[in-house]
Structure formats: structure tokens, C-alpha cells
Amino acid sequence: MSENPEDQELQDVGSDVEHGAGDLMDRHEEEPHQDSQEHAPRVARSASNQPLISEAQAREHAGGSPIKTRPVKRAPRARRMSLSLTRLDAWSVAKVSFMLSVAGGLIQIVAVGVLWGVLSVVGVFDQLTQIFSSTGLDAGSINLTDIFSLSTVLSAVTIFSVVEVVLFTLLFTIIALLYNVVSSLVGGVHMTLGDD
């Protein structure tokens, strides 16, 4: 031992630390035996050390079903499906083509009526009549305003639209029947549909 009192104190503290560490090691070695036993459920207690829930509730919680965790939501993947268009129903094609043709015919009638109104307001028919008369043609026999009157133009467009409806309906129905024949030989049109 040294004679210096400070050295003496340091040696005493060092031996205490070594003994304390040994005690901690002994305690730590005993704890795994206690941890290996089954844990009792933890019960929340108030400031007065009284349980906040009854023992029956604590037993029910300890023996109940495990806590359900929510699964992690992943970003949805785009699905893809391969499909084949192997047959067209001729009757449904005829109905759809008829309705679309009727809609197209009505649009044509309205568009021609609006166009005739604009041309009449601008005075195109009068100017064309003047051009014919200036060329030396008999202006009395040719009057474009009478020839291209609104009723005449709309009647002609209506007749044209009715013929167009019949032709388009027949044409698309025949195309659907031909597609069915070709599809039975080839296997139809193959498509890949994706869900974006």
C-alpha cells in the first residue's frame, strides 16, 4: 500500500467498483432464470397502486385473441388480362349501327340548316344570282334563292340521311357477319387489357 492518502482513496474506490460490478454480474446471471418463466400480464395501476381494470378483465386480455395488426398496404399493381373478341352478335350490331346512323342523320340535317341560315344572312345566294346575271345568262330563269330555299335543302338532306341510315345499318351488319366467319377460322382479335 502507498503512503499517499489520495492513492489510498483511489484504491478503495477501485475495489468497491470491482465488487459492485461483480454483484451486478451475479444479479444479471440470476435474472435470465426469472425471465424464462412465463410473464404475468401487466396491469395498469393508478397513483394509489390500485389496478385500473379488474382481474377478470386482465385474465380475459391475457388469454384473449392476439392483437390484430393491420397489414402493410402496398401500391396496387396494374392487372393485365388477355382477351379474344371471337364473335359479334349481328342483331346487337344492327341496333347500335341503326341508332348511330339516326344520330348522324339528325346532326347532318341540323348542320345543313344552320349552314343555310348563315349563307342566307351573309347574302351568298344573292351574290351568286348577280354573278350569273353578269355573265349574260338569263337571270330571270335562274334564281338561286328559289332553287336553294330552306325547305328544298332540308328535304334533300333528309332523304339523303334516310338512305344513309339504311345503308350504314346494312353495311355494319354484314361486316359483323363476315367478322364472325373469319373469327371462326382465325380465332378472333386478341387484346390485352390493362388496369391503370
UniProtKB/TrEMBL annotation:
Compositional bias per record (Basic and acidic residues), positions renumbered to this chain: 16-41
Keyword Iron-sulfur appears in the UniProt entry: no
Signal peptide feature range: none
Protein origin, superkingdom: Bacteria
Domain DUF3566: 79-195
Bias-annotated ranges (Acidic residues): 1-10
UniProtKB keywords: Membrane, Transmembrane, Transmembrane helix
Pfam families, per the entry: DUF3566
Transmembrane segments: 96-119, 153-182
Region annotation Disordered: where it falls in the sequence: 1-48
Protein name: DUF3566 domain-containing protein
Lineage of source species: Bacteria, Bacillati, Actinomycetota, Actinomycetes, Bifidobacteriales
